[in-house]
UniProtKB/TrEMBL annotation:
Taxonomic superkingdom: Bacteria
Annotated SUPFAM superfamilies: Six-hairpin glycosidases, Thioredoxin-like
Taxonomic placement: Bacteria, Pseudomonadati, Thermodesulfobacteriota, Desulfovibrionia, Desulfovibrionales
Protein name, entry field: Spermatogenesis-associated protein 20-like TRX domain-containing protein
Domain Spermatogenesis-associated protein 20-like TRX positions: 6-167
GO BP annotations, alphabetical order: carbohydrate metabolic process
Native source species: Solidesulfovibrio magneticus (strain ATCC 700980 / DSM 13731 / RS-1)
Stored CDD domains: SSP411
Amino acid sequence: MENRAPNRLSREKSPYLLQHAHNPVDWFPWGEEAFAKARAEDKPVLLSIGYSTCHWCHVMERESFEDEDIAALMNAVVVSVKVDREERPDLDALYMSVCHALTGRGGWPLTVFLTPDKEPFFAGTYFPKESAYGRTGLRELLQRVHMFWKGNRQAVVNNAGQIMDAVREQLAAAAGTASAEPGQAALDAARTQLAGIFDARNGGFGGAPKFPSPHNLLFLLREYRRTGDVSCRDMACRTLVAMRRGGVYDQVGFGLHRYATDAHWFLPHFEKMLYDQALTVMACVEAYQASGDVAHKTMALEILEYVRRDLTSPEGLFYSAEDADSEGVEGKFYVWSAAELRRLLGDEAALIMAAMGATEEGNAHDEATGETTGANILHLPRPLDETAARLGLTAEILAERLEACRHVLLAEREKRVRPLCDDKVLTDNNGLMLAALAKAARAFDDEDLAGRAVTAAEALLSRLARQNGRLLHRLRDDEAAIDGLLDDYVFLAWGLVELYQTVFDTAYLRRAVELMKAVAEHFADPNEGGYFLAPDDGEQLLVRQKIFFDAAVPSGNSVAYFVLTTLFRLTGDPAFKEQATALARAMAPRLADHAAGYAFFLCGLSQVLGQASEVTLAGDPAGPDTQTLARAIFERYLPEVAVVLRPDEDEPDIAALAPFTRYQLPLDGRAAAHVCRAGSCQPPTAEVETMLKLLGA
């Protein structure tokens, strides 16, 4: 393949597009050149959207896009456009909504046929090369499209128009009518819905496949804090324990794979996504604070170690993902034969096979035939103390021996051909990891994690922000490009808000405020409320979409609500409260059908409807008395508490952002906590016990 002359994609930065740079297909990146060619040659456009770590995207490339005959047919009858969904989530969202409207489902690779005016008239996902088993193949599909395009053009054009009309109607229907902001009933409904599908045997929600969905866990943990309902905490904690023991967790190198294909968290799809790591770390941090179970802290630190080792750039930013495949085989990098384990571990092989579910014939089965493959996916089928008892060991001794074996296996695995690392830096996902690092640093009192968060924040603000403060979406090969979308702004603002409350550098809070002001100016829908995915001065697509539903990551609107409500409490600026209330009213009609689908929005609502509290710590930031007060808050599970630090200075920087702090001073020469809870402020106190009592801790 590499011997072929490169196509236009060779000039792109996206690793996904570069994977296709030597296909015989005459690919175009998204842009006017492709559509001008389609108009000039009177051809439809085949739009193929995927991402670098997508297994079925690789399959379709190997079967069809590397095939000379299929490529020749594509080059003859369509203009082919390839898009990285992670670079252009706005395009992906638009055409995925078309796929859902036409087929009732979606996924990647996303395959859409467009008119030269970018209107879709057919959509699907993966297509095999040839038709078989009642499924249309790409060859037949291309032939049919060509026949209809040449022989029944008006019907195709009319169909495209009807499809877009239907999509617009669906979007309008989904919006509903803005009403009063949602209340406790929405929180109760979401709890009930999640409890109804909780898998009490295996952890997680529903059956196969199982996704991490950490924002569901964050919602349950926050509802535990608000209501005292222990079952909410237990569902979240049991799910994290099950994930940590499963094959969905990389037992050798740490970090989560994308999802499990079964209900037991055993057989993963092996790609690793940065956003899964970040959100799971946040869930682990809050689970540790809520339960005191050190296993959750350990899991968070393990994932952060994986990110440091394998997903961190030299300047401290974070890469997007690692592929599932290496040497053309999914999971090959991660699995072990019994013979390999014996060769590497000697006498300890029996121990690790017993503890981690490995067998002579292999515990992994071919999905098509069900036959064993000889490969073992390491996992922990039983709790460690139960396995230790079976082996006549203490849990501590077993853990030490397994850790020694893990180091041996990790060193050996590093010699293998690695899966592709998608090394583009995305602002939105980096914002999530910034938030995760900051939260972990604060909860664990970890200066190293705080330093990593500061390094990332400085690099993001210097490399992915324009001179006018507007954001760019992607950085790769020293090129920052693509106008920032809603998620870039609000996810980075979230990370900066968390970082401010960890290191108390007012510059980070100021930057978060500026980002949310840009969101209000360029993304707000003044008519129906909520925020558009794309800015008002960005590329004009067929539809300007708003996304509210929380999918693999929380929606930009959910995170915007969380950030706005937090900024109101940190700064006292009523504009943030007004914007949050308008957003909540836009969200309200959507919650009626399935409130649990908006779990991260409900995280923000939970703290608004609970005993939301604000604390200003007045004192020397480096003083032990100030640090003692801060640690007393941060080591407890108090997600509803927003913390501002007011240095003992005449005109501190924070007073410009939060004017209410101007006269919040230390008490008799000692650091003081000024506590407001549920809208009621109390006299300042220098005593930890009094502060915690005022906070309901």
